From TrEMBL:
Reactions the enzyme catalyzes: N-acetyl-(2S,6S)-2,6-diaminopimelate + H2O = (2S,6S)-2,6-diaminopimelate + acetate
UniProt KW Hydrolase keyword: yes
Any one GO molecular function term: N-acetyldiaminopimelate deacetylase activity
Signal sequence bounds: none
Keyword Hydrolase: yes
Top-tier EC class: hydrolase
Active site, renumbered: D75, E134 (proton acceptor)
The entry's keywords: Amino-acid biosynthesis, Diaminopimelate biosynthesis, Hydrolase, Lysine biosynthesis
Protein name stated in the entry: N-acetyldiaminopimelate deacetylase
Protein's pathway: Amino-acid biosynthesis; L-lysine biosynthesis via DAP pathway; LL-2,6-diaminopimelate from (S)-tetrahydrodipicolinate (acetylase route): step 3/3
Entries under InterPro entries matching the protein: AcetylDAP_deacetylase (IPR023905), Amidohydrolase (IPR017439), Bact_exopeptidase_dim_dom (IPR036264), Peptidase_M20 (IPR002933), Peptidase_M20_dimer (IPR011650)
Enzyme Commission number, as recorded: 3.5.1.47
Amino acid sequence: MTVLSESELIQIRRHLHQIPELALHEFQTHDYLIEEIKKFRQDYLEIQVPQALPTAIMVLVHGSNPQRTIGYRADIDALPVEEKTGLQYSSQNLGIMHACGHDIHMTVALGLLSYFSEYQPIDNLMFFFQPAEESESGGKKAYELGIFSEKWRPDEFYGLHDNPALPAGSIGCRMGTLFAGTTEVNIDLIGKSGHAAFPQNANDTVVAMSSLIMQIQTIISRSIDPIKSGVITLGKVEAGTIRNVIAGHTRIEGTIRGLSQKMILEIDQRLRDICAGIARSYNMEVNLDLNQGGYWPVENNPKLTEIFISYMKKNPNVEFIETEPAMTGEDFGYLLAKFPGTMFWLGVNDDSQLHSATFTPDESSIFRGIEAIKDFLNYRMKA
Ligand SMILES: CC(=O)N[C@@H](CCC[C@H](N)C(=O)O)C(=O)O
């Protein structure tokens, strides 16, 4: 086996695209990744599957003269989105899609691994194929299980996310905060159901919900410093069963984003206050569940990120773009709070946004991404 070619990489990406799986259920993906990794030259490789996180894969590439272990993370889960790209290699798993480009992330990681399994690195390289980025905080779970210990402990950690707003194959990054921290929000309103004709005998959670949503949407505009900003999106609402029965239960699911932990906590507190107010004024139970999990702001390490950015800027084969912070969330933020490192963007040039049913990243970004990262890792290992 040699290093994966561009067409082999595209084949791999298309296969992964067809088998998207949700957080912590990435079994088919896991088996396929193992199958591909086993095709590489095994002389320097050691593979480990943590028992308690069975869809994760860790691969250590033993270096020739290791001074450190460099970690590289790729997330492997997909989203509950019904694909509408019309591509021949569309998702075969109904209602699930790689709409956030984790198929690209995995393919780039496999490309790097195939290269370093042939050309032994100087330092150790630890590849972490991580389940559950979109929900369930796979990164935090992995850390708490202690899987990054002893030889699996990265001295520095890198990871990328694809970005449709950047040219294909370009690398984007910034000093400081790259991504927001997020909190998952679940709200259950519990009133009393009843006949549509007799509201006086019921307690309508749909009416309370409408008021609650409007009040929540004043948090960003009225309660926080506009220069610092944040986002609250309530993406899912479920209420009632039929038009002529008053809904006794309504559930709202959403997400809060802020560029600092302080901002996240401020928004969380306002949300608690508003829910308490709604409970009182509508005389019903409002149960609020806030869960940040591992979605801490992604804070790039100053020293390593300066090295990363200055290398990418001077590499003539790389189009480097200094980016603004983004309100996307990432549980790599949790891992970067434990290990120094850098998260960066890989441009995939697409009109569709991340998480959209028509998301179609440009596949030429895969090969260019691998080249840029491979060159950086080789450079870093000589430093
Ligand atoms: C890059 C990206 O799109 N990440 C997700 C992370 C999910 C965070 C968490 N489940 C939440 O919704 O708060 C994102 O939606 O930004």
